């Protein structure tokens, strides 16, 4: 489920908010990558790789005009 939602977000270049099992929240733009076990997020600080197993919940942030 997490991987599927992430793949959809990355395909549409959407911003996401990832809630991790340790309580941390990471917000950034989802990007496609060749690693099937990690999410690639472009944040303000740069690119971050997060293992899908560390993600508790994903929210796709969609801008409505």
Can you tell me about this structure?
With about 60 residues, the chain is α+β, with helices and mostly antiparallel strands. The chain has one domain: SH3 type barrels, CATH 2.30.30.100. It contains 1 helix and 5 strands. The protein has one helix spanning about 1-10, and strands at about 15-20, 25-30, 40-45, 45-50, 55-60. The protein has a 5-stranded antiparallel beta sheet, with helices on one face. A hairpin with a 2-residue loop joins strand 3 and strand 4. The longest helix has 10 residues, at about 1-10. The chain is globular, with a radius of gyration of 11 Å.
Spell out the key features of this protein:
single chain; 65 residues; alpha+beta; SH3 type barrels; 5-stranded antiparallel β-sheet; 5 strands; globular
What would you say about this model in short?
The protein is 15% helix and 49% strand.
Write the topology of this structure:
Blueprint: H1 2-11, E1 15-20, E2 25-31, E3 38-43, E4 46-51, E5 55-61
Antiparallel strand pairs: 1-2, 1-5, 2-3, 3-4
